[in-house]
Specification:
The structure is a single chain. By secondary structure, the chain is α/β, with parallel strands linked by helices. It has eleven helices and eight strands. It folds into two domains: about 200 residues, Metal-dependent hydrolases (TIM Barrel); about 60 residues, DNA polymerase, domain 1 (Orthogonal Bundle). Helices cover about 40% and strands about 15% of the residues. The strands form two sheets. It has a five-stranded mixed beta sheet. Strand 6, helix 9 and strand 7 form a beta-alpha-beta unit. The longest helix has 14 residues. The two termini are about 20 Å apart. The structure holds adenosine monophosphate (AMP) and manganese (II) ion (MN) (3 copies). Adenosine monophosphate binds next to helix 6 and helix 7.
Length: about 280
């Protein structure tokens, strides 16, 4: 049933969100979310707390994460849902993916210092909830606090992105590994916010083709990162590639995220929602 208030993408203080898993569960419940997943970047340390808080609010829950992948020299995000959060292979894979963020952050700070903005590593650290997960978002919050930019959107237009100060290229997990970690732990791999990438049509076709070939099964169609036209475009892609469709706000913070938990349009009625294929994984 595509008409379900499912929100299967958001972030807590365990990665780059500003709310705890418990605060997110309460907010999801208040917003009428019926099925929820916390999908912290490269990390599943918040899963037990999220599942317990969901239960306390009477919301159904799927385990979740959002894995950073490098494909055709770009960063692609793969959401995993419904996996066993105690599975040793996914735990090890995510630990390996988190590794290197510390060194990368120091290089980012080095570049920003060369551009005249000193002390950003220490500044970003003040926003970090999980020492293994320092991200560009934490730098962005610090640059806003300092008045370098007026909001995080401006930070990502002027800094931390390709061609701008503070951008450090990074090798994340391979597409194949990320899908295998999720699938072997009993979960489903989903391409997150496909409209956000800057692929050519051929590269995007290759991404979807390889994703399917490695066992990927879903795509985010309705997400806080897509426009209404992009819902239509990626609904077509889901049909073309025979992928199930997902829905998620990608909520990070009350002050920053323009889409709140549970507030998106429903999925187009003819698509197969990911939760239909994950029915036995819902808690
Ligand atoms: P990282 O994993 O350290 O590369 O950081 C990626 C995170 O930065 C994403 O998950 C978003 O939360 C944030 N981000 C990336 N681009 C933007 C943008 N244009 N505007 C706001 N946040 C962004
Ligand atoms: Mn993020
Ligand atoms: Mn993402
Ligand atoms: Mn996300």
């Amino acid at each position: 049933m595509p008409i379900l208030n499912a929100d299967l993408h958001c972030h807590s203080v365990v990665s780059d969100g500003t709310l705890t898993p418990e605060e997110l569960a309460a907010r999801a419940a208040a917003n009428g979310v019926e099925l929820w997943s916390l999908t912290d970047h490269d990390e599943i340390g918040g899963q037990q707390r999220a599942a317990a808080a969901a239960r306390a609010h009477g919301i159904k829950y799927l385990t979740g994460t959002e894995i950073s992948v490098t494909f055709a020299d770009q960063t692609v995000h793969i959401v995993g849902l419904g996996f066993d959060a105690d599975d040793p292979a996914i735990l090890q894979g995510l630990r390996q993916t988190r590794g290197g963020r510390g060194v990368r952050a120091r290089e980012m700070a080095g570049q920003l210092a060369q551009a005249g903005i000193e002390g950003t590593y220490e500044g970003a650290l003040k926003y970090v909830g999980n020492p293994e997960l320092i991200s560009r978002t934490h730098f962005a919050r610090h640059l806003v606090e300092r008045g370098v930019c007026k909001d995080t959107g401006e930070v990502f237009r002027k800094y931390l992105t390709e061609g701008n100060p503070g951008y450090v290229p990074h090798r994340w997990a391979t597409l194949k590994s990320a899908i295998q970690w999720i699938a072997s732990a009993g979960g489903m791999a989903i391409i997150a916010h496909p409209a956000r990438y800057r692929f050519t049509a051929n590269e995007e076709f290759a991404l979807f083709g390889e994703f399917k070939a490695h066992g990927g099964r879903g795509v985010e169609v309705v997400t806080g990162s897509h426009s209404a036209a992009e819902y239509v475009k990626y609904a077509d892609t889901a049909r073309e590639f025979g992928l199930a469709a997902s829905r998620g706000s990608d909520f990070h913070s009350p002050g920053e995220s323009h889409t709140d938990l549970g507030q998106l349009p429903f999925l187009p009625g003819d698509l197969v929602p990911v939760w239909e294929l994950l029915a036995d994984r819902i808690r």
